[in-house]
Amino acid sequence: MQLADNPGRNEPGTGELNYQFLFKYLDEIGYTGWIGCEYKPKTTTEAGLGWRAAHGVQ
Question: How many folded domains does the chain comprise?
């Protein structure tokens, strides 16, 4: 699975996709595969990684 928000292909939480719902659903169905991030941070790379804590992703 690969992710980027829409519109703009920026980090999760900057667009219209409900990543909290999607990550919860993936947990519920037992998804254990990789999740790749292919997005361009709106500002800096460090700031662009801040979404992980809000969604419980390590």
Answer: 1
